[in-house]
Amino acid sequence: MDSCSLACIRSRLSKQSKKHATGVWINVQAMASHAITSDTHSVTQQSPATPLDDMASIVATYEQRIFRFHLISIRDRDVAQSLTQDTFVRAWGARDTFRGDCSILTWLMRIALNLIRDHTRTDRFRFWKRVSETAVDVSDIASHVPHRDSSLESRLIASEQMTLVWESVAQLSDRQRSIFLLRFLEELELSEIASVTGLPISTVKTHLYRALATIRARHNATHKDPL
Amino acid sequence: MTLHLSHEQLCDLILADLSLQPEGRSWNDPNDLKAESNIVQEHLRACLVCSAELRSLRDSLSHFHDASVSYARQEFAQSYAQRSSIAPPHTFLSQPLYWAAAAVVFVAALFPLSMHRQRPVSPAASTVASAVLRPTESDEALLADIDQKVSADVPSPMEPLADPTAGATSTTSTSDQRTN
Question: How far apart are CA A72 and CA A52, in angstroms?
Fold first, then answer.
C-alpha cells in the first residue's frame, strides 16, 4: 500500500465536501471505490471488515433514496445534492462507529437528518430559501401526480390534494416535518423512525398525530370552502 | 348527536399500525385491540363522513408520496447525467456567449504561438537564404566569366592595347583650332 493512507483519503473527502455553494458535485462513489481499492490491505489488516467498507455498493443502493429525502425536506435541488454527498462522506468517515444495531438505511437516514437539522438552523439557509433559483416549486411536483384515471376532473382533484399536503408540510415544525416525511415519504416503520430520530415511539407517534392534525385541518377547510 | 372517529383513531387507520398503543390507553389484552379495531371498522362502514374523510386523506397522502417519489427520481436522473457528462449540456453549448468565449480563448492561445514563430524565424531564414544564395550566385558568375573568356576569339592578354594618345590628339586639335 502506498503512503496515501485512509486518513489522507478522509481529509480529501472532507475538503471536497465543503464545496457546497459552488454546486460542484463529487462522484462519491468513485472516490469511495478508489479509497477502498487503495486501502484494502490496511482495512483487512488493521480492523475487521464492516458492511460500510463497500461504500461503492452502499452509495449505489441508497443514494437515490437519501437524495429524495433531502430534496423533499429542503426543497432545493442543489442543496439536496450537496447534503446527499455529505451524507455519504460522513458515513465513510464514521463507518468504524457503525455497530450494526440498526440497518444501514436507518443509519444513513440518521446522518441525513442531522445534516438537514444543521443546515436549516443557519440564517443563511433562510435567506437562500427565499431567493434560490433551484428551489422546488409546487407546480414542478404537481405535474408528477400519477393519473390513474384519465378524466380531467380526477386529475385536478389529485393535483389539488397533493398541493394541499405539500403546502401543509411546509407549515410543520422541523421535527414534525422530518418525522412525517420519514413515515409518509420513506415509509419507515415507527420503530425505525424512533431509531433515526432518537425519540421514543410514543413521541414519534405524537408528532405524527400533530402533523396529521395540521394536514387534516387544512384538508377540511379546503373541502368546506373550495373557493 | 353523531359520534365520529377520534383524531387518534383516524390517524391510527392512516398509519395502519394498530399494534401501537395509543397514549393514555393500555392494551394488555390483544382481544381488546381486536375489539377496538372491529368497532372502528364497523363505524367506518356505517359513517359516510368518516369513511369519506379517511379515503380523501389517504388519497392525498398517496398522491403526495407518488408525486414526490416521481419528482425525486427525475431530479436524481438529471443530476446523475450531469455528473456523468464531462462536456457541458447541450443547452449551454447553444448559447452564443459560450461560442464567443471559446473563440476568444482559441485566438488567445494561437496569438503567442504565431508571434513566437515570426520573431526568431525571420533572421534565421534570411541568414540561411543568404548562406545558400551567395555560393550559388558566385558560382554562376564565375562560370559565366569562364564561358565568356573561353568563347572569346582573342584571349584577353592578346587583345591590342588601347591608344593612349587618342585623348591627347583631340585636345591638341582643339587647341590648334583655338590658336588658328
Answer: 26
pLDDT tens string for chain A (227 positions)? 344 444 444 444 444 444 443 333 444 544 444 444 444 444 444 555 677 778 888 999 999 999 999 999 998 888 899 999 999 999 998 888 888 888 999 999 999 999 999 888 876 666 656 556 667 777 777 778 877 666 788 888 888 889 999 999 999 999 999 999 999 999 999 999 999 999 999 999 999 999 999 999 988 887 766 54
Q: Which three cell numbers stand for residue B175?
A: 587647341
Enumerate chain A positions whose Cβ falls within 8 A of a Cβ in B. 25, 27, 63-64, 67-68, 71-72, 77, 80-81, 136, 140-142, 144-146, 158-159, 161-162, 164-166, 169, 183-185, 187, 189-190, 201-202, 205-206, 208-209, 212-213, 215-216, 219-220, 223
Intra-chain end-to-end CA distance of chain A, in Å:
70
Check: CB of residue A29 under 8 Å from CB of residue A84.
Answer: no
- Among A25, A72, A168, A201, which would you mutate to test the B interface (most chain B Cβ atoms within 10 Å of its Cβ)? A72
The answer to whether the beta carbons of residues B82 and B89 sit under 8 Å apart is yes
**Is A144–B15 a contact, with Cβ atoms under 8 angstroms apart?**
no
- pTM of the full structure: 0.62
